[in-house]
Design a protein that fits this description.
By secondary structure, the chain is of the alpha/beta class. The chain has twelve helices and twelve strands. The N terminus is likely disordered. GO terms for molecular function: pyrophosphatase activity.
Length: 339
């Protein structure tokens, strides 16, 4: 987590243009505040909080009262941060993803966000979630492909309720194919996981769900001929940290580093074998220890498909993801989020 204190302005200096993105996912709500700069954007604050908004949603299709109470607390913190950094509501974009798509009535979320932040939240479709993840993960990357052909990049966004696969030309910033799978760490942990470590029966049940989803995804998103693969989300960061031999709490230091697929699969296997005490020793956040094993199985199955498709490049982890895509889009839309 990082933040910066706003700089002091000269009396004749123009007012800084600031914007914020909020990514409200199934497990975590996150805030990113940007300021327009000559080279694009300067990061002022990045905040993250586990709220498990998707608690029970896969089964009930309703927000649970305890989850809404956690949302209330998080929104108050976000409101204070927006006030501190003088970000107007007209330049805040609030994107709600999988859990908010799944509920039959999103009004409890919409009403709270509008009341506290003065912003109308967007419950975005899975394909838009994928496109925003692609934009955030690939911003500023050097070309990986030979000149004259598309820089084919796959971004894997492994969230709490869904996993997005998106292939595009990273240099051009163009999405070529995208698909959102209803398999995420919270969703599958609630369906199948009773404790840690995951036993063989649980692993097999999660793998079946993921493989069925991948069968559909591969009809839309081609997994062969890739120049680069990037994984995003805190769960991917945890797997990368285990592969790197550092605490999961230090995952931000690993952003845009890459590892051979076998190394990442070994790291996922270690997480799957770990009990709660071992996960704590690895530095996994308390709010993720009950779901990170399911995430590791999802990751392993996606990696297996990539290997079968002839993967010939290492896989990178990126801290930049959908949140960055949402915040950058808010910075470019002066009236975004006005209620």
């Amino acid at each position: 987590m990082s933040s910066q204190t706003p700089r002091t302005l000269r009396p004749d200096a123009p007012e800084p243009v600031r914007a914020a993105g909020v990514d409200c996912g199934t497990n975590t709500i996150r805030l990113l505040v940007l300021e327009r700069a000559p080279d694009g954007a300067r990061e002022l604050a990045r905040r993250s909080r586990v709220i498990r908004l998707g608690e029970g949603v896969d089964r009930t299709r309703r927000f649970a009262p305890p989850a809404l109470a956690r949302l209330d607390a998080a929104l108050a913190v976000i409101r204070a941060e927006l006030d501190r950094l003088a970000v107007p509501a007209s330049r805040v974009r609030f994107a709600a993803t999988s859990a908010s798509r799944d509920v039959t009535d999103p009004a409890p979320l919409v009403d709270r966000v509008r009341s506290v932040l003065g912003v109308i939240p967007e419950v975005i479709a899975g394909t838009e979630e994928a496109a925003l993840s692609f934009r955030g993960a690939t911003a500023g990357l050097p070309r990986a492909a030979a000149p004259g052909r598309p820089d084919r990049t796959l971004v894997i966004d492994m969230g709490g309720g869904s996993t997005e696969l998106v292939v595009g030309d990273a240099t051009a910033g163009a999405v070529l194919a995208a698909h959102s799978m209803d398999v995420g760490s919270v969703r599958l942990a609630e369906r199948h996981v009773a404790g840690t470590p995951l036993d063989a029966t649980v692993r097999a049940a999660i793998a079946r769900d993921v493989d069925r989803a991948l069968d559909r995804a591969e009809q839309i998103v081609p997994l062969g001929g890739l120049d680069r693969v990037i994984g995003v989300s805190d769960s991917v960061g945890a797997i990368a940290a285990v592969a790197a031999g550092v605490s999961c709490a230090r995952r931000a230091e690993l952003s845009r580093r890459a590892w051979p697929v076998d190394a990442l699969r070994r790291a996922a296997a270690r997480i799957i074998r770990s009990d709660a005490t071992e996960l704590a020793a690895l530095g996994v956040d308390p709010g993720r220890r009950d779901v990170v094993g399911a995430a590791a199985v999802i990751w392993d199955r996606v990696c297996a498909r990539l290997v079968a498709a002839g993967l010939a490049v290492p896989i990178a982890y990126s801290e930049q993801d959908i949140l960055d895509g949402v915040a950058r889009s808010a910075l470019e839309r002066p009236d975004a989020g006005r209620s």
